[in-house]
Amino acid sequence: MQPPNRFARKLPNEATPDHTMSTSILVVEDEPAIQELLRVNLEDAGFTVRAVGDAESAQMEIRAALLDLLLLDWMLPGQSGLALARTLRGEARTRELPIIMVTARGDEADRVAGLEAWVDDYVTKPFSPRELKARIKSVLRRRAPEAAQETLTVGSLRLDPITHRVSANGAPVQLGPTEFRLLKFLMARTERVHSRAQLLDQVWGDHVYIEERTVDVHIRRLRLALEPVGLARLIETVRGTGYRLAAPK
Q1: Is 71:136 a contact under the CB 8 Å cutoff?
Q2: Which of 46, 167, 182, 207 lies at a 20 to 30 A Cα distance from 105?
Q3: Contacts with 208 (C-beta within 8 Å, 6 or more apart), sequence order
Q4: CA distance 28 to 30
Q5: Average pLDDT for 174-201
């Protein structure tokens, strides 16, 4: 059977997945008590959490849908967390995936091995949930700013990812869920140009197969929503390349 075509439109009877707007974290931890502790604390912080107990299950989750951050235990049954991190860094699709290693191994040699696998941070057990949440937000600010659950501001435009509210000069801006995600991604990367394919992967998800022109439809809707507050011009078309959100002059 041939793989699905990224540019093929879904058939009318195919359901479109309901993507959550909260940041998704995959916890890979084989100790049930720690796994549950992490899930409860991260969900309390507003993250969407999936949890598995081994590297093979983690790879299946990641193949199904790319997430925002991987919280990875070093010592796992079968393949180690360190080996999984190296595998993910070696693949184009997961090369930029933020990874935090969680482990009881705190020796300098172990830390060096973790950093050489290009993990973004290294947390030693035991740790406080508060410290872990701070480290997660720090990594997301560096690697995936739109996923850090922090308020974004560009000129008079303000987006709050926790309350899902957008405003300009205090006036509310009404957006659909897809336009909200699109604006959130663009505001986190002001002045950077993104192709339609990049926007599809980052906003819709790399496991969703729809036409690139779908992006144009939602860009038009976003501009229409920003027009009443005089900010439609911030969404610029870069001919032959894609779109960007321009910083106000």
Answers
A1: yes
A2: 46
A3: 16, 17, 200
A4: 7
A5: 90
